[in-house]
Amino acid sequence: MSRGRRGLEPGTTAHYEDAAYYDQTYRRRRSDVRFYAAMAEQHGGPVLELGVGTGRVARDIARRGMAVVGVDLMPEMLAQAERRLAREPRAVRERVELLRGDLRRVRLGRRFPLVISPFNVFMHLYERRDWERALATVAAHLRPRGRLVFDVLLPDALELARHPTRIYRGRSVRLPGDGRRYRYGERFDYDPVRQLQKVTMVFEDDEDPTRSFSTPLSHRQVFPAELEALLHYNGFRIEALWGDFEGGPLEAHSESQVVVARLSPRGRR
């Protein structure tokens, strides 16, 4: 781990250690799933998914008849993906291959017409060299004329200015691990120099305070011009940049930056 990444590792992994809670939290998030599955239909398989998580997107692609190779760093997420995949018909199961690996280093010796990285995965690339390594991974796995498709949040100045000691309350949640209900809140602490937003998810048990705990999550904020430069100087050019998963324009109030990119001639290897 580089010196600059010290202290960030829990924010990279902790949120993904409870894969059942992750699935429960994002079970209604479907617009991105439909978008990536449609992209897979457009480009054909097999598809390489970097940051496959619990397989939300991969399963839908496989249901539409295309093979998916899903890579993830977290064994808990991959185990949950395997459990969820076991409920699918055999034909769907056989189309999904799950591998543990770091998206900055993995080399499969195969090329794909489509490489995807859904749901803010690239926001865990905290430094320029992390982006360089991740994009080198993509370049090593793209077929000629292949596409890279991913999404990251559009930084919101008002959200980044939240007071770091205040807990912003949300709805109470029931954790699948113990079945108990917890008061839920979030604290936000933004470092404008490193462009890092550190979120602390707070779970409070009013009946038994000893069960209360918090979970860190660290996200690198990436601004649109910076995003274009990162891609450009690593051999990619943006073909489309949208503000949502329905192809709407990127505007000030957009939540996400949805990117379709391909290797420029100088970036081909």
Strand-pairing-aware structural class? alpha/beta
Q: Regarding CATH, which class of the largest domain?
A: Alpha Beta
Terminal CA distance: 27 Å
Helix content: 25-40%
Query: Could you give the order of the helices and strands?
Result: HHHEHEHHEEHEHEEEEEHEE
The oligomeric state is: single chain
- General form: globular
Strand order of the largest sheet: 3-2-1-4-5-12-11
In short:
With 269 residues, the chain is an alpha/beta fold. The chain folds into two domains: 3-155 and 223-267, Rossmann fold, CATH 3.40.50; 157-220.
How would you describe what is shown here?
With 269 residues, this protein is of the alpha/beta class. The chain has 2 domains: 3-155 and 223-267, Rossmann fold, CATH 3.40.50; 157-220. The protein has 9 helices and 12 strands. A 7-stranded mixed beta sheet has the order 3-2-1-4-5-12-11, with helices on both faces. Strands 6, 7, 8, 9 and 10 form a 5-stranded antiparallel beta sheet that branches. β9 (196-204) and β10 (213-220) form a beta hairpin.
Note the topology.
Layout: H1 9-13, H2 19-25, H3 31-43, E1 47-50, H4 56-63, E2 68-72, H5 75-85, H6 90-94, E3 96-100, E4 112-117, H7 128-141, E5 142-153, H8 157-160, E6 168-169, E7 173-174, E8 181-191, E9 196-204, E10 213-220, H9 224-232, E11 236-242, E12 256-263
Parallel strand pairs: 1-2, 1-4, 2-3, 4-5
Antiparallel strand pairs: 5-12, 6-8, 7-8, 8-9, 9-10, 11-12
Helix pairs in contact: 3-4
Features:
alpha/beta; globular; 2 domains; 269 residues; Rossmann fold; 28% helix; single chain
